[in-house]
Amino acid sequence: MAPYNVVLVDDDVLLRDLLRSYFEFNKQFEVVRDYSSGRDLIDYLYDNQPDLIILDLMMPDMNGRLVYSQIKLIAPEVPVMILSSWAEAELVTNLLASGIRGVIQKGVRAQDVLSAAKRVVDGGIAVETRGESATLRIEMQRNEQKLPLTNREKEIVQLVASGRSSKDIATVLSISVRTVEKHRENCLRKLGANDMSALVRYAMEQKLIAVGS
User: Fold this and answer.
1) For residue 95, is pLDDT > 80?
2) How are strands ordered across the β-sheet holding 102-105?
3) Which burial class, exposed, middle or buried, applies to 40 when counting CB atoms under 10 A from its CB (0-12, 13-18, 19+)?
4) What distance lies between CA 69 and its chain's CA centroid?
5) Residue 15 has pLDDT above 50, yes or no
6) For tag attachment on the chain, is the N or C end more exposed, with fewer CB atoms within 10 Å?
7) Furthest C-alpha separation in the chain
């Protein structure tokens, strides 16, 4: 399986270099770009769609929240992890509520960053923190199964239930087959299902398709 393409954005050059070495040693990830500026990332996203963006919360040109608001407009399917020196419960909760898929407090172990990244690219939520706030991390991950399907995931379910193949769905939605498969896995996980028939039942219950169609 090809490694996941990662883009790093942090104005701290040393931290970027360390993260790059962590990811590339792991072999599951390839750092395809690293930037010190949110504006450079935005320019890159107009023509490229990586598998994961790791974004510093505080940068001199554009803070992470502002950069993320632009990412949602340009590349809404790309999951984003935030790097932050702080990890108070209110901050983490607000970031996740905005659609951020992971929050990593600076200073955690390299292996925790890597496991968080793998969790996020697999469709989950990751919160890795230092000290007592680890309680929040555990609670967030417990609640992950309660997440509703996103609008894009509902589209996937509707198309799957209508008998479309992953290749057909990728063409219809202008995304990669790999992204379609990832969405299908996420839908099954969120619904606690083991096969596609459960997605069809969900589509009928939610009136995404007509019964008997």
Assistant:
1) yes
2) 29-35, 4-9, 52-56, 80-84, 102-105, 126-128
3) middle
4) 14
5) yes
6) N
7) 59
